[in-house]
UniProtKB/TrEMBL annotation:
UniProt name for this protein: G protein gamma domain-containing protein
Alphabetical list of SMART domains matching this protein: G_gamma (SM01224), GGL (SM00224)
Keywords, sorted A to Z: Cell membrane, Lipoprotein, Membrane, Methylation, Prenylation, Transducer
UniProt family annotation: Belongs to the G protein gamma family.
GO molecular function list: G-protein beta-subunit binding
Amino acid sequence: MDMMVSTLQQQRAVTEQLRREAAIKRIPVSVAVTDIVRFISDHEQEDCLLVGFTSQKVNPFREKSSCTVL
């Protein structure tokens, strides 16, 4: 009997989760892709991987020097 109650509770939880997922507002992929392309185009001047860095000191990807003065 306990196993049936447990199974019933699991099924209710799954049903509630599916109802929450079904209620999510969705947009077509074509609209999402257009929005992504527009965002990238609008922000490409701020992307340091596309335009580079103003100096080597602000570049977090530069190689660290291995030479130290003793």
